[in-house]
Amino acid sequence: MITWPFSALRGLSAISVDYHIKICLYVHVQILSALRASAEETRLRILAICAHSELRVNELTQILGQSQPRVSRHLKLLCEAGLLVRSREGAWAFYRTPEEHSTSIGAELSRVLVDLLPSDDPELLRDMARLEQVEKERAAQAEAYFRANAAAWNQIRSLYVEESAVERRLLELGPRLIRHHVDLGTGTGRILEVFSSRSQRGVGIDLSREMLAVARANLSNARVAKHLSLRHGDLYSIPLPSHSADFVTLHLVLHYLSDPAAAIREAARLLEPGGTLIVVDFAPHELEFLREQHAHRRLGFSDDEILGWYRQAGLVPGKPEFLAGESLTVAIWPATARRRDA
Ligand SMILES: C[S@@+](CC[C@H](N)C(=O)[O-])C[C@H]1O[C@@H](n2cnc3c(N)ncnc32)[C@H](O)[C@@H]1O
Fold first, then answer.
1. What is the pTM assigned to this prediction?
2. What 3-state class would DSSP assign to 298?
3. 3-state DSSP: the chain helix, strand, coil percent, rounded to 5?
4. How many alpha carbons fall within 13 Å on the CB side of residue 234?
5. Predicted confidence (pLDDT) per residue in 291-340, tens digit
6. Hey, how many other C-beta atoms are within 10 angstroms of the C-beta on 260?
7. Which fold, 8-118?
8. For ligand 1, what atom is nearest to the CA of residue 211?
9. CATH topology of domain 151-337
10. How far, in Å, is the centroid of ligand 1 from the Cα of 131?
11. Which of 134-143, 155-164, 243-252, 289-298 has the highest mean pLDDT?
12. Same topology for domains 8-118 and 151-337, yes or no?
């Protein structure tokens, strides 16, 4: 049985005192509604789960073992109180705890509560184990898709964007001389190949062994394999040391991921001070079939979203560029890792 952590009131008192001084009735109403919304066992469990991952209702239903209408009602109350954030993307809705930098009453209370929940509570431990299972299923679905499409990937990609135009622009924006290039979600290895004449060393990382096999074949066909290598790995925990790369790329990968912000943080960890990150992905769109038929998790990204994640990861955003196509716009988002003296 998870009980409401009353010590949260201590953490909250700083917030309330501040607002008492301003005699702001509105804020009191907010605090009370957030406290009321959190005072229920399942809702505390939902907060703990959503602090780890962004989830859809059916995924939460699976983890909590409760009916969809019940879970939806809990989610509605938590969102109304600002303890959870709902983001809608086409036919899907994702729920998560508010971003770290958010200073709303709901966000602060949400953080205080999650921190105070006992991590060894058996119910919460079971929830975390089921969350891990849900995440594994997600990853397996994405991997199955890539496996099925490994050989045809180059062809599928050309349906969305004019590849050569994006690559030309990337070459103009990318560093002239690269000591160590890391391409995350390298797929066919194409981006390693594009920068190969400028890089002293290039490593492509991908979760799909089949894609790596295709990349290996492509790179050796292109006779650029000598200084380029491929590694099997998850871009959420890249098997490379921190600050070891001066150039990192994420080319048309982010929209497959359940936690793009974490991917950007991990990319930033790899960069040495002054190093460059370039993310290429789609601007927001409404092509739902990409999700249904091609395992896209996100229908593009807004500037605000990407630049917000850059700043949170300690990167300095550069000027985004957009290449409009027939139905999709490709966005190029450059960023630089802060120099030590900055
Ligand atoms: C659309 S392909 C893009 C490939 C390549 N960047 C390109 O543009 O040609 C996305 C790639 O991301 C890889 N991927 C997806 N999730 C990943 C993860 N968590 N870690 C590493 N690679 C991942 C997939 O296996 C796939 O090869």
1. 0.70
2. coil
3. 50, 20, 30
4. 12
5. 887 888 999 999 999 999 999 999 999 999 999 987 889 999 999 999 87
6. 22
7. Arc Repressor Mutant, subunit A (1.10.10)
8. 27
9. Rossmann fold (3.40.50)
10. 23
11. 243-252
12. no
